[in-house]
Structures are given as structure tokens and as C-alpha cells.
Amino acid sequence: AQKVTQAQTEISVVEKEDVTLDCVYETRDTTYYLFWYKQPPSGELVFLIRRNSFDEQNEISGRYSWNFQKSTSSFNFTITASQVVDSAVYFCALSARGGGGNKLTFGTGTQLKVEL
Amino acid sequence: DAGVIQSPRHEVTEMGQEVTLRCKPISGHDYLFWYRQTMMRGLELLIYFNNNVPIDDSGMPEDRFSAKMPNASFSTLKIQPSEPRDSAVYFCASSRAGQVNQPQHFGDGTRLSIL
């Protein structure tokens, strides 16, 4: 069985603070893919990043960075110098061959509120 | 490029009525997914298609739900008869095939309210 846990239900920060969103996953597969999606207040789901299980290099894209650690089954997401526009629900998701190929298992999401 | 297009954006109807949700995937994408999002259950995969063929419908809640994909550019999710507990946001997503699991691109969703 596959599972994604986002233990942080809601996080509130003040603009310009750094914030890290946690994601812990479970799978028996050795080949799998991890994703982050953003759901702003308007409701759409926006793809942010995909990482495969063989690539543990961290990734940085502007103010966003992702830390993938297989040893702890975690794929955490950090926003540096947060802005009000970052306010959204962020979902971590897992896709593994044993779970049906392209099927995504989502976490319950973390609501991020960035205030002035 | 046009993204995944869903219609209608909002639907309000009375229980017992038939509801049809529509989705146009991104051109060239081989996979199409239907999800349901509720506060209680989060994002749930209902069914997905590959090359217009249903691959896994284990997430479809009951026989009142059905989905079809008659061609590569169109899919429907139908609820008949609808019940208040079906109220949710329904998302359609599509992705390409490939050696790696390609990211799924989502439509804006249909917000369904069953009175």
C-alpha cells in the first residue's frame, strides 16, 4: 500500500519568513515518483515538481527548494522569503509502479497562510 | 497551449437528478484521470483511462457513478441518481505516457452541489 503523510495541517507565517512543508511517504516499490502541487484559493491544482526515487539531489527553483531524503522517506518543500501570493494549500503526492503506474496518492495537504 | 478544460465550472441540482461532468484533456496526452475533492476525504482518484480505455475504476464509489471516454479528446463522468453526499469538487487531469511517470495536469474543476 502507498501512503503520503503531511502532518502539518496549517502553517501561518509572516511575509519574508522561510517556511518548510513536510512530506513523508510509504511505498514498497523501489521505483517511484514524488510530486508537489499547489492549490491557490482560486481552486485549481498547479504542478510544481516531480522527483524520481533514483535522484536524491536537492532542487532549487527561485524561492522554492525541495529536499528528498530516501533514508527518512521524506520529500520536504521549502519556500524562502515567503510572499502573500504563496498562500495556498500544498499537496505532496506519490506514484509507484506497484500502486498502478500513473496513479497518484495524495497527502491531505498543508494550508499555508502568509500574512503581511 | 490549452490546458485541461472542464465543464461546467459550477453545477447545482436537486438530489435524484442526473449530473454529467465533461472533460477535454490536453492534446497528445494518453492518460486521463477523474478525481473528487472533499474536506472529509481529500483528493481521491475515481477512475483513470489510458488511450481511452478504463484501466482502474476501483475508486468509483458506487454504481451510481460511471465514466466514459469515447475518444482521445473527450471524457464524461456521470452520476445517476445524484445524492447530497456527492457534493464535491471534481477534477479531471491528463498526462503523457512515457518511461517516467509524467506529471498530471489538472483542469479548474467542477464544483458540484446536490441539494
Characterization of this structure:
The complex is a heterodimer of chains A (116) and B (115). Chain A is mostly beta strands and 116 residues long. Helix content of chain A is 0%, strand content 53%. In chain A, strand 7 and strand 8 form a beta hairpin. By secondary structure, chain B is mostly beta strands. In chain B, 0% of the residues lie in helices and 54% in strands. In chain B, strands 2, 4, 5, 6, 9, 10 and 11 form a seven-stranded mixed sheet that branches. Chain B has a four-stranded antiparallel sheet with strand order 1-3-8-7, with no helix packed on it. In chain B, a hairpin with a 2-residue loop joins strand 7 and strand 8. Classes of the chains: A mainly beta (116), B mainly beta (115). The interface between A and B is medium-sized, with 22 and 24 residues.
Q: Please provide the ordered H/E string of secondary-structure elements of chain A.
A: EEEEEEEEEEEE
Oligomer: heterodimer
Structural class from helices and strands of chain A? mainly beta
**Average pLDDT of chain A, to the nearest integer?**
92
Distance between the termini of chain B: 37 Å
Q: What is the element layout, followed by pairings?
A:
The complex is a heterodimer of chains A (116) and B (115).
Chain A lengths: L2 E3 L4 E5 L4 E3 L2 E3 L5 E8 L6 E7 L6 E3 L2 E6 L4 E6 L8 E9 L8 E2 L3 E6 L1
Parallel strand pairs in A: 2-12
Antiparallel strand pairs in A: 1-4, 3-9, 5-6, 5-10, 7-8, 8-9, 10-11, 10-12
Chain B lengths: L4 E3 L2 E4 L5 E6 L6 E8 L3 E9 L2 E4 L8 E7 L2 E6 L8 E8 L9 E2 L3 E5 L1
